[in-house]
Amino acid sequence: MGHEVHGVVARGKGAPVSVENIFVPDPGAGEVVVDIQACGVCHTDLHYREGAINDEFPFLLGHEAAGVVSQLGPGVSNVKEGDFVILNWRAVCGQCRSCLRGRPQYCFATHNAKQKMTIEGVDLSPALGIGAFAEKTLVAAGQATVVNNAVEPEVAGLIGCGVMAGLGAALNTGGVTRGDSVAVWGCGGVGNAAIEGARLAGARAIIAIDVDDRKLHWAKDFGATHSINSAGLSNEEVVAAVRELTEGNGVDVAIEAVGLPDTYEQAFFARDLAGTVVLVGVPNPEMRIDLPLIEVFGRGGALKSSWYGDCLPSRDFPMLIDLYLQGRLELGRFVSEKIDIHGVEDAFHKMERGEVLRSVVMI
Ligand SMILES: NC(=O)c1ccc[n+]([C@@H]2O[C@H](COP(=O)([O-])OP(=O)(O)OC[C@H]3O[C@@H](n4cnc5c(N)ncnc54)[C@H](O)[C@@H]3O)[C@@H](O)[C@H]2O)c1
Ligand SMILES: [Zn+2]
Ligand SMILES: [Zn+2]
Predict the structure, then answer these.
(1) Ligand 1 test: best mutation among 88, 190, 234, most atoms within 8 Å of CB?
(2) What is the pTM of this model?
(3) CB atoms < 10 A from the CB of 208, how many?
(4) What are the pLDDT digits (tens) for 255-269?
(5) CATH tag for 3-160+330-362 (out of 3.30.530.20, 3.90.180.10, 3.20.20.30, 3.30.428.10)
(6) For residues 297 and 317, what is the distance between their CA atoms, to the nearest angstrom?
(7) Which atom of ligand 1 lies at the shortest distance from residue 212's CA?
(8) For residue 143, which of 11, 113, 207, 236 sits 20 to 30 Å off, Cα-Cα?
(9) Neighbours of ion ligand 3 (CB under 5 A)
């Protein structure tokens, strides 16, 4: 039977997105249908519509979402109808070589729904295997993580992508610990979550770097101890500014949450000896970096990438929601505005103009 619902579709590279009628099939084995309540607008959605991720248009956008399970396919046991869930893009398989080595957070064969949602009979590519700017979406059951339903959906959904990516970049990938110095490039939703993660871990200095004063102002609210407006500065000048704030040494953990070669280079040179660089920002396929190999060797430490904050949804989502409900994690401040499903294109422009941390679509 399936469902005809509204969803936000990107039909072609750079073309404005539009609200369309899409078809969501009934769940098959191991799949569930989730009635979406809230879905944040993440920069990765914009990357999809710009063709920067791949060219498998049409995309059903939206992937930072919370909702209620409304229909179960055969064999589903991890959730039941009526459960309040956050959707994740890391439904671990339990069987790949990474899972079998006890490292499910790097699972190499994560699950998505096997059936396709469609528009006018054409298969849709759901953003990050989710597609949640829609009244209903179809996902693999493991993509739905049950959390305490006392949390507001617009807040819970944030954990599903950007906030988790940033918190986890600091806490999991970067391993920030008490007394560390940390710098974060790009103070959007992801970067500010990294700042909050660094604060939670007990970092002693947290340097926020952005080209926009508004973002730097918000970064201070999340726990940045210093800020640098890098607009118009050369890479060397930014590095010098970070060193000046760290007794000439550079930071222990340098987190890049923009996705540009210049900011990566700044992060690389602004870290202390034996420090860690964490790349969270998503570069486009044309971008290149050119680093002296002797510096890669001579500085020691680690150059890491962080996908989804190296999170394990079943471990991390309920824990973060508990911290939020206890008042120990500030999540509400990420929600700059609530919009309806027709507001996504406009929200992209607000994101580009730096006016918001997160616009959240309420459905
Ligand atoms: N690795 C992951 O798992 C993951 C998950 C979600 C998002 N992301 C990526 O993280 C990045 C940030 O996402 P977001 O939603 O926070 O985006 P955003 O647009 O809200 O934030 C980006 C910030 O970078 C700043 N910026 C731009 N150019 C800069 C420069 N040259 N120097 C310093 N700051 C600069 C902007 O002013 C803005 O505040 C994106 O590339 C997104 O795709 C990665
Ligand atoms: Zn696996
Ligand atoms: Zn995202």
Answers:
(1) 190
(2) 0.94
(3) 28
(4) 999 999 999 999 999
(5) 3.90.180.10
(6) 36
(7) 37
(8) 11
(9) 42, 44, 161
